[in-house]
Amino acid sequence: MKLRLILPLAASALALLAAIGPGVTSRQALRDVLVVVDISRSMNVRDMDSASRLDAARAMLKGWIAGLPCGSRVGLGFFTERRSLTLLDPVEICTDYAALAGTLDALDWRMAWEGDSMISKGLNHALRRAADLHAGLVFVTDGQEAPPLPYSGPDALRGTSPGGVILGVGGDTPAPIPKFDDLGREVGFYEAGDVQNAPARIGPPPADAESRPGYNPRNNPYGESDLTGNEHLSALRADYLTTLAGARGMGFQRLTDGAPALNAALAQHVPARETTARRSLAPVLAALALILLAAAWLAGWRAPAPRSAGKEIWR
Amino acid sequence: MSFDAPLDAAGLHLFDVLAWRLARALPGLRSGGHLGRMRGAGEIFADVAPLLAHPDPRRLDLRRSISDPFGTLSTRRFQARTDLRLHLLLDGSASLAASGSADRWGLMRLLAAGFAQAARRGQDLCAASLCCGAGIAHQEPPSRRPGLAQELLATLSGLHPQGRGIDALLAATAELPTERILVVLVSDFELTPAELQQILTALRPRPVLPIWLRDRALEQPAPRFGLIDAQDPETGRRRTQLAARRWAARQAAAATAARAALRAVFSEHGLRPVEIADSIEVAELAARLDEAPL
Amino acid sequence: MIGLTQPWALALLPLAALPLFLRWLRASAVPRLDLRPVDGASRAVDHGLKALGILGLGALVLGLAQPYLRGGSVVHRGIGTNLVLLIDRSSSMDDTFAGRSPSGAEESKASAARRILMDFIAGRPDDRIGIAAFSTAPMLVLPMTESRSAIASAVSALAEPGLSQTDVGRGLTLAMGMAAQEAATGARAVVLVSDGAAVISPEVQVMLRNLAAQQPMNLYWLYLRSKGSKGIFEQPQPGEADTPQLRPERHLHIFLQSLRLPYHAFEADSPGAVEAAVAEIGRMESRPILTRRPVPRRELGWLCYLIAALAAAGLTAARALERPWAEARVKPLLVLP
């Protein structure tokens, strides 16, 4: 058969095959994640390019979720005081992105039922919750413990960690924390005197208590250690969060590192759920058909009009 | 017996039989093969004249001179033979390239050479102009050279039909003399009646011998069903045709009607074209040439 | 609405213009085409070949861009309402109706409420539902949505143990605000599910009254009454103290009645009673509503490829049918008898 007939015939066959849409299956690693966002007061600090830490976290998380492969499930919760509260169990992101984004938008410091921010306790709680939901954890926080940790240090996690990533948000230079009144109006910043600057006097006293002013073995075993401090200023406690993460089989990333870094850290620390995905071969077949069909047209091209031909045109 | 390309000089002798005779006498002094308007030595009696007016005592008409009451001596006068110029006006526009059952460009080359051969036999001058659309592609000055036919054949073989329109034909016509000439107009006559009218009017009052090269297959396309991408070789325009029995009949009818319209224009000018369909039959051509009103 | 997954592929679209400049069939020289008759069928075939060419190449390029019919939603007339569920997340909800920690067959108030609400939602496909919760602070759990999976995930998240206290006033403000903001047509309703109440401060009372005046909505209170606590309909005995501090449930009921909204209170002291109350709410909230029903995204690439395949097949057929005007059977130049 002639080539000029074979080309369009093959293009037609390939296009038909593309319409039927054969596919090859490939394995796809998906991860389910529970995102828990710290909504304590320090998250209102505006040191993320003049946006508040909460706003920056919201924007980044929305972009990150939108970029995840379909089939991934993301749940949403928040953290304040000493525990987290799950608002949405993990949902498939492609069908329920709007709901996730809406709930993320509604996250607000006013949801906090307490003003405290005990990061390590909250993290442990969130990890247990994520383990119940069979999901990894993305814990978004600035690492500001309020009140400061007791001298005994953070609690250890009981139970197994499902793995995850602590996403650090905030700047490296301490910045003032906005203060709000009962009706939610901003009324300046916290002063040093408004906050507790030293750990609560529970548990064993610090090792150097004897050298502190006002130390008395019976009446004042902790010494006068909470007279001054700068707990009213907040910065990202990256080192502290890295330590917390390391002890719990988690990774640490800064929010500003972006979604790819977060995905890489998740891939490292959260076991994947293997699913099979079907990749359609239609685009390849159609591209081939396009090349053949275009070639068939271009083959018909010849020098303009055979005006001067003394020979026949038909061959 | 058939004669096919390659054309060579050997085949040209076949055209020796072609001859042409004009209806009117021609002026001119050179002696040739055609009846001249001049009186002189010849075989065809013309009239008698007084010896004083025509002092040729060898052709004294004795009977007439004796019987003349006044004793006037009369001599017989004969028509002198004269030559003429055979001008081959070849329409080599691009349409000639289209070919079905006839190689019309080959036919034209062969005819041109054949007429040149015949002209030499008839001791006539032969000239040619190949008109391709708007320009004259080749012009052969009048001559009686012995190898003209072969030369013409070789020259034309190196050229191709091209161009569109009749401008070159009209331009070539304007340069032709009006006396002692026979114009042989070889064309496929793929023209509108108006264009033909224009050419024939321009050729007046010269005697014209139109030779019409026809291609039967182009005139009557096969009725087989199919798609044709027809291209006009002159304009390069293309048009797809859905071929079928009815379509073929319609095309054939249209071609017939177009030919009839052209024939009507010819007869308006007192001409009858010699039609050559697909191939040349020399004897037939000679017969047609004899009948042609020149 | 049609979207493209790979819009860059449209850069190949100029290929579809090839048929405008090139011919599909082989040329056949015919002199003076302008003097030959034209027929409509031929002209149609001429344009048809061009169109098939453009269609074939264009459809393939468009198919490569992977068009899809944007999912989303279609407006749909159903029976239901714009419903905001306001759930009490105080820790007392984790107790049973008997006031104990759940054990064995006895389920907690929260889990009973969750189960019954799940069934309720599953049986009402046309509702738009938003979920708010409250303890000391009100929290927006899920903005109004039609997505059943999102609603189910929010309700299932209620399984987590609750928080400390009950501030029903601010919770109501949030829920009524959500219901009022909802621009959609149809009725609006707020269902408060709680096992207790608290004193509503005067400023919050003013806010609630304003909200109620702005936007009419139906108000339901499903009071999960624990054993031993006072009912909301119980009139105090003569001489018994009747203050909001001592009888917050009764006074919340009186306050809600005073909002001049269609208001119904249900007292349930067992899972069965909760079910009956929810069914009653469902019956009352069955009104025509214009809601949106999700439409899954549909790929259109196959359609493009099919069109391209047909066009290419047509072109192939045209080439199979192509023929010259006249068969090239050239007769000899000279014929001698």
Automatic annotation (TrEMBL), chain A:
InterPro entries: VWF_A, vWFA_dom_sf. Residues 195-225 are annotated as: Disordered. It holds the Pfam family VWA_2. The keyword Signal applies. CDD domains: vWFA. Residues 1-18 form the signal peptide. Gene3D superfamilies: von Willebrand factor, type A domain. This is VWA domain-containing protein.
TrEMBL record, chain B:
InterPro entries: DUF58. Residues 71-258 form the DUF58 domain. It comes from the Bacteria. This is DUF58 domain-containing protein.
UniProtKB/TrEMBL annotation, chain C:
SUPFAM superfamilies: vWA-like. The keyword Transmembrane helix applies. Keywords: Membrane, Transmembrane, Transmembrane helix. Pfam families: VWA_2. The keyword Metal-binding does not apply. It comes from the Bacteria. This is VWA domain-containing protein. It comes from Paracoccus limosus. The lineage of its organism: Bacteria, Pseudomonadati, Pseudomonadota, Alphaproteobacteria, Rhodobacterales.
